[in-house]
Amino acid sequence: MAEKRKILVVVTNVGAYEKVGMRTGLWLGELTHFWDVAEKAGFTMDVVSPRGGLIPLDPESLSHEALAELGTGKRYADREFMDLLDDTGKIADVDMGEYDAIYLTGGHGVMFDFPQTAELEALIARFHDSGRIVSSVCHGATGLLNVTLETGDPLVRGRRVTGFSWPEEELADRAEAVPYNLQEELKRLGAEYSTADEPFAPYVVEDDNLVTGQNPGSAKGVGETVVRRLATV
Question: Does residue 156 sit within a domain?
Answer without folding.
Answer: yes
